[in-house]
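Protein in question passed on here:
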Amino acid sequence: MHSASPVRQQAGFGLGLRTEHYADFLAGPQPLDWLEIITDNYLVQGGRPLHTLDILRRDYPMAMHGVAMSIGAPGSVDLAYLQQVKALADRIEPLWVSDHLCWIGPGPEQLHDLYPLPYTDEAARHVVTQIRRVQDVLQRRLVLENVSSYISYKQSAASEWQFLSFIAEQADCLLLVDVNNIHVSAVNHGFEPMDYLRALPAQRVQQIHLAGHSDMGDHIIDTHDHPVAPAVWALYAQACRLFGPVPAMIERDANIPPLQTLLDELGIARGVAAANVGAANPATPTVTLPVAAAGLPVADGPVPLEQSQRCLSAYILGRQPEPEPGPDPDAGSGTTTSDASNAALALVAAPSTAWATQRLGIYHHAYRARLADV
């Protein structure tokens, strides 16, 4: 299926291809090394986007970046979907194919957001199995991205970076390190972002994402509608020192500016990399991993993966929670919206109920905003 050891492809600096910039790219060569497409926008039989893609791939290497694989959902990744992804990959011959370490819905609902996982033994086993299945179908290594998050789970017994590193080694996949997401989550959860970077297996880092966010004061929302923030540039400099010349790109998904503005920002990325790749690494503290490589990282949590995801989905959708199977001493009494809130709040590791309510509300309001946009 793939080689026995990870081999990083060198591709320089790129941008995400957006429809607003089609005309610029079709008009003539642009000063960048590659383009990243949102895979799910091109899983179609024809139309202008696919036609444009066929033209542009003659001039620019492409990377495929998906948002709908839902590799952390409790069921198996949809085979028909994977076959569509493979067909597109066969068509455009991408540098690599990436998606996210997350779930987007417990099924059949797809909530079209990137939700974090609990870092448990059950989740680790499931994700590793799914990545291996994806790689078997695609006949190539999957590149897995860390997501930003606003909540963490009480049942998690490892850090996100420990979990991600373990998954990458066990499933033999590669990593897309989103530096902005690390910064966002570090602020939201109060961890040291350099601990995250230092713990990742450098030889598996295939790509880096840079993006903007919205600073809300006591938390950050990953919006991709601003320029890259100074703190993210500083963290990218450290990533360059740790990982070397990794292909990097800038994501912009809202308030999309003229192409030249993004090219100027990409010039900053080139400058940061030139000044830091090959420089001495920052002092590296000892990072304690959960167990030896042969073992699994954490014990099972008290709440099964599927149950926790359905519980959070009910909250996000504003529904009543589904009853658990088995005898119910309160059968017939009914459930209320507050039951969904209480069940979801019980999953969240938080200093207070008000804090947990605020953070869960970010996901709920984002879902409602997407419905309004549609």
